[in-house]
Amino acid sequence: MKKLSTPAIVVISAVLAGCATTDDNLPRFGTMLRDTTGQNARACIRLRDIDGSGVLDDGVIMIVAGRKYYLATIRPGCGYIARSVRIGFDSGSIDICGGGMGYIYTRDRRCNIRDLFKFDNREQAFEAYNTVQAKREELREKAEAEVKQK
User: Fold this and answer.
1) What are the backbone angles phi and psi of residue 16, rounded to the nearest 5°?
2) Domain span at residue 49?
3) pTM of the model
């Protein structure tokens, strides 16, 4: 096996450190949604009321139930949800709630719901989602600029 020189190791370490400063160091999406909405992230939905859902990104799912809209965040490591053709919801009761009280499942896997936020309409849900996305992008750009300055 060929050994790396000290300068090569320094360059590789700097590149890896730069990668770690982006999403890994950002506040959780759910935490930022709590700050944006003032909600406690423990909303509940009656399972039978769920009309549909859609994956907004790897960690956020929009759920439609009656005339209400919900944003759910899921635990890390559940990126496969975004690639699933069909997802379902379940819990140990008739409701799913934020705080790990319900889960999203695919054909052979399941993932706990971390946070659940309730909105009166689609526009409010997307406004909150887009606000947090914009704040995260701003923090990401700031972190990348700081890394470049070092």
Assistant:
1) -65, -40
2) 28-135
3) 0.80
